[in-house]
Amino acid sequence: MKFLSGLGDRLREGLRRSQEYLAGGLGAVLETDRPIDDALLEELEELLIAADLGAALAADFTNRAREEVMFGTVTRAGQLRPLFRRFLVDMLSPAAQPLNLDHRPAVVLLLGVNGSGKTTTAAKLASSLKGSGKRVLLAAADTFRAAAIEQLKRWGERIDVEVIRQAAGSDPGAVVFDAVKAATARALDVLIVDTAGRLHTKTNLMDELVKLRRVIERQLPGAPHETLMVLDAPTGQNGFAQARVFHEAIALTGVCLTKLDGTAKGGIVVRIVRELKVPVKLIGLGERVEDLQTFDPQAFVDALVGEA
Q1: Could you tell me the pTM of the whole model?
Q2: pLDDT tens readout for residues 209-254
């Protein structure tokens, strides 16, 4: 289901810093009439790694380039940019999957470390879904931070969406239990659960998140229907490492990349898709509600790589 506005100029502007870095580097390496030799391919591989696309992908593409040169389909450096664009679109296309909202209620569990933008993303998603006609409920399950509860409460008032919450320090499982019960009793369309990103207790964060999943599953078999990690794109490789840990522990159904407008590391999207095999469900391009967007591979590659 596509419920958010198209990308277009907003995505290009949001990825401006990433494009300046990658497209600028490509322009320097891939001079139109430069012959393709080992030195060029080594420079290209180093550039792709530096852009957070990952060593594996960089090696894959340079090997692809060597094959095209061997077969005679590519003879000059300027031809490698469109080849690279097609390579990225083909790889990213399977990752463009819609949110699974076909259940009533559909439960969306948002995970991630503190500071990644979970609470704001929960509110933006709730607002967008409400705008598309869905009846939405929010749950403030990050009970270890009073600020998180208050922030979601304020967002709920702003977008006119109810927030199920308890006092700071309460059992997050109790909040989730109440929220699932309320969403089910009222036959609401979507329940969005904001969770903790760090605990102030001896409990391991992953154990706590697994517990929340069990609470949801016991009340609503088959739920949560989406387990999304909200990832701060500027963290780059650290963010990728975080995503790997969360995926291994919780089995993510997708990721939401936030703050893409504030980084030159937009290539981390590509590495997550290629190496973790996790869909990119949403991307965040700014502070406004409408800056939360569905992921469009073609538009993303256009914005990231730029024109020749």
Answers
A1: 0.88
A2: 999 999 999 999 999 999 999 988 777 677 778 888 889 888 999 9
Smallest CA-to-CA distance from 126 within 116, 140, 136 is with 136
Query: For 36-70, how does the pLDDT look when each residue is reduced to its tens digit (9 = 90+)?
Result: 999 999 999 999 988 878 888 999 999 999 999 99
CA angle 229, 263, 155 (to 5 degrees): 50
**Phi, psi for 267 (deg, rounded to 5):** -65, -15
Structure tokens at 81: 């940019």
Strand partners, 76: 35
Instruction: Round to whole Å and give the CA distance between 303 and 285.
Output: 12
Burial of 215 (0-12, 13-18, 19+ CB in 10 A): buried
What is the token pair recorded at 141?
């399950």
**How far is CA 24 from its chain centroid?**
25
Cα separation, 307 vs 247, in Å, equals 34
**Contacts of 286 by beta carbon, 8 Å cutoff, 6+ apart:** 10, 14, 261
Can you list the positions of beta strands (E) in 200-291?
226-232, 254-258, 280-284
CB 127 within 8 A of CB 145: no
Strand arrangement, sheet containing 254-258: 163-164, 136-140, 190-194, 106-111, 226-232, 254-258, 280-284, 292-294
Residues 241, 268, 286: CA angle, nearest 5 degrees: 110
